[in-house]
Amino acid sequence: MRRVWRRGVLRDRRTESPTARTLVIAVDEWPGHLAGQHLDLRLTAEDGYQAARSYSLAAPADGDHVEVTVQRTAGGEISPFLTDDLAVGDAFEVRGPLGGWFVWRPQDAGPVLLVAGGSGVVPLMAMIRARAGVSRAPFRLVYSVRTPDDRLYPAELRRRVAEDGGLDVAWIHTRTAPEGDPRAPGRLRSADLIAHGWPPDFEPTCYVCGPTGFVEAAAALLVALGHHPSRIRTERFGASP
Amino acid sequence: MDASSRPGALDGNALAGPLSEVFVAEVTTAVARCRGCGRATVVAELVVFGPDPGLVARCPGCSDVLLRVVRTPERMWLDLGGMASLEVAMS
Q1: What residues 5-34 of chain B have any CB closer than 8 A to a CB of chain A?
Q2: Phi-psi region for residue A25, left (φ > 0), alpha (ψ -120 to 50) or beta?
C-alpha cells in the first residue's frame, strides 16, 4: 500500500514501565489505522545520516494523534533516544499505517486469543482499546513478562477487565512472580494456554506477538493444542532485547 | 537451515514499510509461492532477516530466498526471483 513519509511531532511522553515510554505523536494528515498495524519512524541526524525503525501503534488514532510504546534497548541506536532524549516538540518522519495481516477489525465478532511476550503486548493493547465500547467479541489476553515491573499498561488492563466486559487478562511471569501467585515463574507453557486461553473448538483467532523465540514457541504450543495454523497470526520483532 | 528457528529473524510484517514505496496494493497480505518447494505463504508469515544492509525474505518451508530488498537514498533493488508467483488481493 503506497505510503509516504509524513512529518511527526512528539506531543507527549508517558512512562509505562522502568524501561518503556509511550510517545504521543501528531502526524500531518494521518489517514487513520486498524488495530495491530505499525508505523515506521525515521530520524535524520544533522549530518544527514538516517535511521528508521518500526513500532506498533498502541491505540486507536485520536484525530491526527497516534501512540506508540517504545521499549528501551540497552545499547540500542534508536530506542534510548526515543525514550530519553527526544523532546516534546521535536519533529521527525513517520510512514504508515503499515501492514494488513496482523490486524483486528471491530466487525470480527468471533472470540480472540491474544498472546503477548514482553512489549509484544503493544499491538494487542491496540486491539483491546479498539474493542472497548464498539465490540462484544470475547477477548482473552495471556501476557508473558519477566517480572511484575515489566508489565505494560497494568492499571488500564485491570480497569478494562472490570469495565469492558468480555475481557480477561492473565499475566505469566518468567523470572519473578508477584507474592501469592500460585504459578511458579517460568516460560509460557501449554497449561497456561489451556487455563487462560480458549479451547480450540471455539475456533478463536489467535494473535501472537513478541520476540521471535517467544512467538515461535507460543505458536507451536497453540498448534499442539489443536488450534489450526490458519487462525494463528504472528508478529515477531526479532531477538529479545 | 531451519530459518524459522533463527532467533534474530523477523517476519514479513517488517516488509510493509519498504514495499509500500513501490507497490500500490498491500503486499504483506499477498500470497507468495516458492519457486523451490511450491509452498504458498502469506507474505507477512515469511521469515525475514534485516533490515540492514537489506531485507531478505525466506520461505518458511524450505528456506529458499523469495525476496530481497535493498534501499539506498536514491534507489531500491527488488529481487523477487525466488517466487513462482505473487497473488495480490485487488480491492
Answers
A1: 5-14, 16-17, 20-21, 23-29
A2: beta
Tens digits of residue pLDDT in B25-60 = 999 999 999 999 999 999 999 999 988 889 999 999
Instruction: Specify whether the CB–CB gap between B61 and B41 falls below 8 A.
Output: yes
CA A117 to each of CA A82, A142, A145, B33, B54: distance values in angstroms, whole numbers, following the listed order? 21, 9, 6, 30, 26
Residues A210, A200: Cα–Cα separation, whole Å: 22
The one-letter amino acid code at A84 reads D
Compute the distance between CA of residue A136 and CA of residue A10 in angstroms, rounded to an integer: 33
Q: What is the pLDDT of residues A71-120, one digit of tens each?
A: 998 888 899 999 999 999 999 999 999 999 999 999 999 999 999 999 99
Residue A82: DSSP 8-state: I
What pTM was estimated for this model as a whole? 0.95
**Chain A residues with beta carbon closer than 8 angstroms to that of B26:** 1, 100
Task: Name the CA radius of gyration of chain B, rounded.
Answer: 12
Task: Report how far residue A124's alpha carbon sits from residue A143's, in angstroms, rounded to the nearest whole number.
Answer: 10
Q: Could you tell me the three cell numbers for A210? A: 513478541
Shortest Cα distance, chain A CAs vs residue B36, angstroms: 22
The rounded Cα A240 to chain-centroid distance in angstroms is: 14
Q: CB-based contact (8 Å) between A42 and chain B?
A: no
The predicted complex's ipTM stands at 0.91
Cβ–Cβ < 8 Å for A36, A123? yes
Concatenated DSSP letters of A138-172: -EEEEEEESSGGG-SSHHHHHHHHHHTSSEEEEEE
How far is residue B86's CA from residue B41's CA, in Å, rounded to a whole number?
A: 10
**CA A131, chain centre distance (Å):** 14
* Cβ-count burial A71-93 (b if 16+ within 10 Å, e if not): bbbeeeebbbebbeebeeeeebb
User: Is the CB of residue B88 less than 8 Å away from at least one CB of chain A?
Assistant: no
Residue A49: partners with Cβ closer than 8 Å, 6 or more residues away: none
